[in-house]
Amino acid sequence: MDVEAVRIYCISLPKATEDLPFGPETLALRVGGKIFALLPLDKVGTINLKCDPERSIELREQYDQIQPGYHMNKKWWNTVNFEALPTKMVEELICHSYSLILGSLSKKQREQFGI
Q1: Which of 73, 8, 77 is nearest to 37 (CA)?
Q2: Domain count of the chain?
Q3: Structural element, H or E, at residue 49
Q4: Is 112 a domain residue?
Q5: Does residue 82 form part of some domain?
Q6: Most buried of 4, 19, 21, 47 (most Cβ within 10 A)?
Q7: What pTM, to 2 d.p., does this model score?
Q8: Residue 85 belongs to a domain with what CATH number?
Q9: Residue ranges making up the domain that contains 81
Q10: Dist CA 80 CA 9 (whole Å)
Q11: Residue 113 lies inside a defined structural domain of this protein
Q12: Alpha-carbon gap, residue 69 to 66, rounded angstroms
């Protein structure tokens, strides 16, 4: 996968939005106003994704391409080298992150954002 394919996949998820809150070098992908992925545009090939802590440990042990989240809470976030992993796996990791964030939204937030 390349950076544009990752971006397109992320924004194809229901009610996903994108913006550049940290400047032009980092794209934030959100659902319900909360970030589910950070895509560094100056460090092509990686994406930060939220992950269940237990699963994070397993993934980091199995794959060198998955590391603790760069500049993120390392318990909950991974930095994933999406160029070195199969597309299906990257898509599944993105969906997992999206689902975690979606599940953290209150009923009121989900209604507000039409989710």
Answers
A1: 77
A2: 1
A3: strand 46-50
A4: no
A5: yes
A6: 47
A7: 0.94
A8: 3.90.1150.30
A9: 3-104
A10: 15
A11: no
A12: 9
